[in-house]
Specification:
This protein is α+β, with helices and mostly antiparallel strands. It is built from 14 helices and 21 strands. The longest helix is centred in the middle third of the chain and has 22 residues.
Length: 409
């Protein structure tokens, strides 16, 4: 099968299975200008599925860097009213969101960390309706990838240009289960059922906490009262099924942000806001980060942690077996969408509403009393490894093996 045919198949998967476009729906597609060729395929598939309108939100990392380097400080701190009004109007329509990630994971390196933080925080505040609708699954949303050249050359430094891009496309298509032989949508139906069985088992255990241990980390994470394990798929407010991430290999839930103790060492780099953060180590006491270090990108990490009170704790705990296809593929993507599906991971910041009983209906302050974390950010980082052991601690203190040597026990 040619790359062209595979990309058509991928676009159809994104629209029909990923975000699950419904007739009459408005779709927002976020894409870099370099990926216009594949973006057009997604747009065509969306209209074919009955979309009322596809709203394009184009980006360019070089232009973004110029803006960050040169715009006045007061402009970085202020999002124009027309931007907020547009975003709010789209959320009034319950527009679905497709985010096509493709850019250089280190493309904003060198930008002043304080200026980047100022812009990021302003956007988070001004576009709060979008974040809230996404975190609560009021809308269907999806993060997927395209093979940008700078990203491809970062992942495969021995290759250049089209050769690197084609190699990255091959990895992306394999990991989203698009191949020559089988039906991609049927592949996902089978995969979802496998992950759902793991989530069902974890929900039946109703653990009070999880204890992690490997050569670099030793920490315990309490689980929120009424926590719910999820896997692969969610339901939007209208009851439509969608898949938030493609690829996905995880089952995940909400931690108790009051009960996190110990030392956490990341096992893969984190690309955040166009900066690589490497060798992250965090110490937790009583649910809060009390010490943070990194060999690269520490100022950006510290600004992330200082975003708000919730950014000093965790909003997601996710289990991914080391034998997962992405981990076994041996490719370091420098991109959280892929690397988090090669490794157990945690998220600094906000918890998902779907990960706690009553999360979509109860008041946030009531959920917070059960350990649910509230923040303007949600940033995953990877902690899993082939030597990771995880024990579940039951409500009455019994120990149940969950992972041994990086895999399900």
């Amino acid at each position: 099968m040619s790359l062209e045919t595979q990309l058509n198949k991928y676009a159809e998967l994104i629209v029909k299975k990923g975000v699950n476009v419904q007739p009459g729906q408005t779709i927002i597609l976020y894409a870099a200008v370099d990926e216009a060729y594949f973006a057009r395929k997604i747009v065509a598939a969306a209209y074919e599925a009955g979309a009322r309108e596809v709203v394009m939100e184009w980006s360019d990392q070089t232009i973004a860097k110029a803006f960050l380097d040169h715009a006045p400080e007061d402009r970085l701190a202020t999002v124009p009213n027309y931007t907020v009004a547009k975003a709010n109007e789209l959320m009034d329509q319950y527009a679905s969101r497709i985010s096509l990630v493709s850019q250089d994971p280190d493309g904003l390196a060198g930008v002043d960390a304080e200026r980047l933080h100022t812009l990021t925080k302003a956007n988070q505040k001004a576009l709060g309706r979008v974040r809230e609708a996404t975190m609560k699954d009021d809308i269907s949303w999806l993060v997927v990838a395209a093979a940008g050249q700078a990203w491809a050359e970062k992942v495969f430094p021995d290759l250049k240009g089209e050769e690197a891009v084609n190699r990255l496309w091959a990895e992306i298509l394999k990991d989203v289960r698009v191949d020559d032989e089988t039906d991609a949508i049927a592949n996902w139906d089978t995969h979802i059922e496998t992950l759902k069985n793991k989530a069902d088992w974890l929900n039946s255990q109703n653990f009070k906490a999880l204890h992690y241990h490997n050569a670099k980390s030793d920490f315990t994470i309490g689980l929120a009262t009424g926590h719910i394990w999820e896997a692969a798929f969610s339901y939007d407010k209208a009851g439509n099924v969608f898949i938030p991430n493609m690829p996905t290999e995880e089952v995940f839930t909400a931690p108790d942000n009051r009960n996190i103790q110990g030392h956490v060492a990341a096992t893969l780099p984190l690309s955040y806001q166009g900066n690589l953060i490497e060798d992250i180590e965090l110490d937790f006491e009583n649910g809060r980060i009390v010490k943070a270090s990194a060999s690269k990108g520490l100022p950006v990490l510290q600004k992330l942690i200082d975003t708000d009170e919730g950014a000093k704790s965790l909003g997601e705990v996710s289990l991914v077996p080391d034998p997962s296809p992405i981990a076994q593929g041996g490719v370091l993507f420098y991109n959280t969408l892929f690397d988090e599906n090669a490794s157990d991971h945690l998220a600094i910041g906000a918890a998902y509403a779907s990960n706690i009983a009553g999360g979509k209906t109860d008041q946030p302050e009531d959920l917070a009393k059960r350990g649910w974390n509230i923040s303007d950010v949600h940033v995953d980082f990877m902690v899993g490894s082939a030597d990771m052991s995880i024990d579940g601690i039951t409500q009455d203190g019994q120990i149940v093996p969950v992972f041994r040597n990086g895999d399900w026990a």
